[in-house]
Design goal:
The protein is an alpha/beta fold and about 375 residues long. Among the domains are: about 140 residues, NAD(P)-binding Rossmann-like Domain (Rossmann fold, 3-Layer(aba) Sandwich), CATH 3.40.50.720; about 30 residues, no CATH class. About 25% of the residues lie in helices and about 25% in strands. The strands form three sheets. Strands 3, 4, 5, 8, 9, 16 and 17 form a seven-stranded mixed sheet that branches. A six-stranded parallel sheet has the order 12-11-10-13-14-15, with helices on both faces. Strands 1-2-6-7 form a four-stranded antiparallel sheet, with no helix packed on it. Helix 4 crosses helix 5. Bound molecules: nicotinamide-adenine-dinucleotide and zinc ion (ZN) (2 copies). The site of one zinc ion has 6 residues, from loops. It is an enzyme of class 1 (oxidoreductase). This is S-(hydroxymethyl)glutathione dehydrogenase. Keywords: Metal-binding, NAD, Oxidoreductase, Zinc. Its EC number is 1.1.1.284.
């Protein structure tokens, strides 16, 4: 029996309020309106941003909400005017959309499409309404994706069709963490062959940076992390040396400058801590070192350094979603995965069912997982 045009009842992990575990509920998902796509989600990763919003610290956070933004799925039906995907297509929802018409999309220097920024931040579709209900209450959308549900509704500009040969429980991770780090090295820093790089924080994002540095032909890739358990696994991703700030009684930037004859060519902050952001900048080589901020700091926090650090030729940059124009790039990254250039499988350390989704959050908080993938 076709579900097209009908409300679908399915299971979702609902965040009813801040600071509480997710609860598995039967929800109702409306059909897609014009320009929208209803997707059956088959797998999703769990990312720090989901945890951040769930914690209540996100000033934009609204409840009750269906979180999740690292999903993979199959198109169930499309709304009026949708042409780039059709029912049955394998797709990855994208929290950075690509409308291809706004000022940002038309500028090759940025990937930050602004077409639906305001409504996406408010947790609603562009017409101000929502497509989810549970127990008589409407549920908010999240980052334009809401992948913690068996079915979700997203905009056509927030989705891309990917090669069906790729398993969705792996390429779902191309929805956030992997492109973020990989693109930070390749698109934002534009790491050159023979470079010395340092990566602060060896979670999924930092390890993806390591893959990007390796792909670019970096010579030394120094991993900086306070969890020594990360080093063995990081070698597999191309980290060549490991520095634990806890092993030293001087600032870590001084240690790194000493190890590298004056500093790094490229550093990457993948923690979200304003102190390590400063260390990462100051670990850069005078005259040309570039530091890229990827980690997301807490609301209201500020970075600082002495301006002389910049006057003497260091550059501070930042990046979201690795600088990738999302709909153009994610299908290409899927192809890189299929041609064994981009090893996504190594990121999946745990697999859980939807009912165990809170366990995936626990594995992330305790530092045990690189990524735990939730299967529907
Ligand atoms: N800019 C973007 O588009 C974007 C996208 C996704 C995630 N992020 C952010 O990237 C960051 C990393 O995400 P992740 O999923 O890899 O996180 P993660 O928690 O898996 O990894 C962080 C790592 O940093 C280490 N660490 C913590 N404090 C440290 C310190 N003081 N010194 C050295 N190492 C330290 C931890 O041991 C851990 O290995 C987060 O802030 C996340 O919000 C940004
Ligand atoms: Zn994320
Ligand atoms: Zn746009």
């Amino acid at each position: 029996m076709s579900t097209v045009g009908k409300v679908i009842k399915c299971l979702a992990a609902v965040a009813w309020e801040a600071g509480k575990p997710l609860s598995i509920e039967e929800i109702e998902v409306d059909p897609p309106k014009a320009g929208e796509v209803r997707v059956q989600i088959t797998a999703t990763g769990v990312c720090h941003t989901d945890a951040y919003t769930l914690s209540g610290k996100d000033p934009e956070g609204v409840f009750p909400v269906v979180l999740g933004h690292e999903g993979g799925g199959i198109v169930e039906s499309v709304g009026e005017g949708v042409t780039s995907v059709k029912p049955g297509d394998h797709v990855v929802p994208l929290y950075v959309p690509q409308c291809k018409t706004c000022k940002f999309c038309l500028n090759s220097k940025t990937n930050l499409c602004q077409k639906v920024r305001v409504t996406q931040g408010q947790g609603v579709m562009p017409d101000g309404t929502k497509r989810f209900r549970c127990k008589g209450q409407e549920l908010y959308h999240f980052m334009g994706c809401s992948t913690f549900s068996q079915y979700t509704v997203v905009l056509e500009i927030s989705i891309c069709k990917v090669n069906e040969a790729a398993p969705l429980d792996k390429v779902c991770l191309l929805g956030c963490g992997i492109p973020t780090g990989y693109g930070a090295a390749l698109n934002t820093a534009k790491v050159e062959p023979g470079s010395n790089c340092a990566i602060f924080g060896l979670g999924a994002v930092g390890l993806a940076v390591a893959l990007g540095c390796r792909a670019a032909g970096a010579k030394r890739v120094i991993g900086v992390d306070i969890n020594p358990a990360k080093f063995e696994v990081a070698k597999k991703f191309g980290v060549t040396e490991f520095v634990n700030p806890k092993d030293y009684d001087k600032p870590i930037q001084e240690v790194l400058v000493g190890l590298t004859d004056g500093g790094l060519d490229y550093t990457f902050e993948c923690i979200g801590n304003v102190n390590t952001m400063r260390s990462a900048l100051e670990a850069c080589h005078k005259g040309w070192g570039v530091s890229v901020i990827i980690g997301v700091a807490g609301a209201g926090e500020e970075i600082s350094t002495r301006p002389f650090q910049l006057v003497t030729g260091r550059t501070w940059k930042g990046t979201a979603f690795g600088g990738y124009k999302s709909r153009d790039s994610v299908p290409q990254l899927v192809d890189e995965y299929l041609s064994k250039k981009l090893p996504i499988d190594d990121f999946v350390t745990h697999n859980v069912s939807l009912k165990e989704i809170n366990e995936a959050f626990h594995l992330m908080h305790s530092g045990q997982s690189i990524r735990a993938v939730v299967h529907f």
